[in-house]
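Checklist before submission:
- one chain only
- standard amino acids only
- sequence pasted in full

Submission:
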Amino acid sequence: MHKKRSRSAELHSTAEDFQNECLALATGRGSYEGWEAARAALLSQPEFLRVVPQWVSRCRFGGQFWPFIKATSDTYQGRREFLYESLAPLFELAEQGGSLPTVDAIQRLLMSCSSQTVSEAWHRIQARREADPEGAITAARALLESTCKHVLDALQVSYGPSEELSALYGKAAGAMNLAPQNHNEQVFKQILSGCISVVGGLAAMRNALGDAHGKAAKSPKPSARHADLAINLAGTLSVFLIETYEERFRSRSP
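Returned file contents:
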């Protein structure tokens, strides 16, 4: 509990520093250098990846932020209100200790997804997670595979019937500009590279601990915590892919 509070305090401090620098520039104070340093500190926290506003990514320098924030309102108060509302998700995440999305949060988004296979995979996870950790791990891997195919189908990107999960994720990430090599900032390259590692780890976890293959008598048996790890990892990546598609591409799809 102490560790979670400490992490919450660290994340809250980072978000507050950035918000203060934004407020300072928005009201005719502060410096470009201070804003840029606070932005770099904010983006170095991987927990903020899913909730950071798009304008934070687009405005890399204080000289870019100033005309952006000036255009949001003619008054200082209007700019303050915009920043408070825009940055609120950072503080909400900090209060949660920066933890991965809960099963309930993942469920709310995935159940609203239009893909029947994604919803079915999530139902299988819920049916197995308590009593059948091996089955839940296999279902978690299937959830991410179904999500990748859902995104690829929506974007009309072709894939083979027997392509591996890593290849499917690579195509989905490439189609939505989530490939590490497409980004210049080291923090984004590092985080998106980590997503690729997670995909590979899920596939290996399914092979070693899932029920998709026959097991030797002395094979390790997963516990509920192993299943929850697989579910959280697969669910987080699935949510990330679906949210990215919904935000950037849904209106363009036929």
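Reviewer check: Residues 1-5 have pLDDT under 50 and may be disordered.
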